[in-house]
Give the backbone structure.
Amino acid sequence: MANSCVDFPAKGGFSFDLCKRNAMLSDKGLKLPPFRKTGTTIVGLVFQDGVILGADTRATEGPIVCDKNCEKIHYMAPNIYCCGAGTAADTEAVTDMVSSQLQLHRYHTGRESRVVTALTLLKKHLFNYQGYVSAALVLGGVDCTGPHLHTIYPHGSTDTLPFATMGSGSLAAMAVFESNYKEGLSRDEGIKLVSEAICSGIFNDLGSGSNVDVCVITKGHKEYLRNHMLPNPRTYVSERGYSFPKKTEVLMTKITPLKEKVEVIEGGDAMEE
Amino acid sequence: MESNSETKQHSLLSSESGIQRTQYPYVTGSSVVALKYKDGILMAADMGGSYGSTLRYKSVERIKPVGKHSLIGASGEISDFQEIMRYLDEQVLNDHMWDDGNSLGPKEIHSYLTRVMYNRRNKFDPLWNTLILGGVKKGQKFLGMVTMIGVNFEENHIATGFGNHMAQPILRAEWHENLTFEEGVALLEKCMRVLLYRDRSAVNKFQIAKITEEGVTISQPYALKTFWGFQAFENPTAGAEGSW
């Protein structure tokens, strides 16, 4: 807390005021609640006609799986998608923010977004926060200059690669890519290789699991294959069903449909642009 | 085993007493990968000994035969591996002196190594190694691992160190019973190639060892072919001038 007579308005960025107090509390033994990390396997590869991205669907909070089927492939632009690993809030916020910036840029220039634009916007933001925004991303897309695949690390460095993996399962997925990748793959071969790499992450890494999401981006066309593979189905459901002990007694049930209370005007004017 | 210097009451130089303990490894070997195949065991390791982040020694043999029926491969501290070989040579010699027609098999050696490693860890003075032991005796194949804290188990395919993260996924997906020798070597080479690309302490100089009922063969050192000619590596920033 600065000792000054004039109150400055809060500037952007993090305020590190509470760090000393937090350090004192953790010395006394207080444990912070764990962040919801995605503990992930995300991959991307460049094939003959474009880019294929893949991701698993498990989100973990420490040792617990908090979301069995989350979406890790985020929309950036009609021709650009981004997979995110690391802290879930950070990846969501950063990709949403850059996606809006790209939309504004598209309106301004009247052209399709380029992958390098998304790359530079993300990289600038992450470097600015010196690695505290814990988002490791695999960015892929096809624009007028061709297909591109990049990885972005939380501190802001980037790589341009023919195939890339990130997240805790990246080593298992990279083992599959390094042994089986070649240039000029067809669409089906590419999807098969991406699925194999994600499955390798799912079955060999504890932080990844559940299903496989795949996104295929080609010139002028994209396909988001949500839950392309479900290699972990729930095979046993108890036939007896579940009975929970009675808590609050239900005395009366009365349902009031809201339509009577709200006036619905059919075929009104469309909202003005 | 302990180095007994004079136990001083107030020692400013040594920590608590005159006893030295292994705190961290100095010269280390990277991963070893092994698998069971139709006729026996195949094991592969590179020949590098790293001194911290320097690749200091490039002709370290990390796979050695033990007795008539076993092969041992080690990753971790090289000096501790040499010590373990001394203990094993002593055991094999004693066994030979019995002259009773029987000889130490892989299961026995595995058990002995587990005891040695676990006891050292209990004294807070571990032998800083992860050992892979493979062998064939009377038609029975054996492949097992012992870590520096005494964890031991048997499996059909094993990898130490970084190999656990990069080679095991490949082995889990592609290993099956009754691999032929050629298939086994191809699978091991696949794993070693991935490790060569992605492990910073790997050298491109390997030995593959094979043990069957007939005996041990350790190959001459050789190098693997690597491929770096991807389009994207030629000019990575073609689409983004000035980027990296």
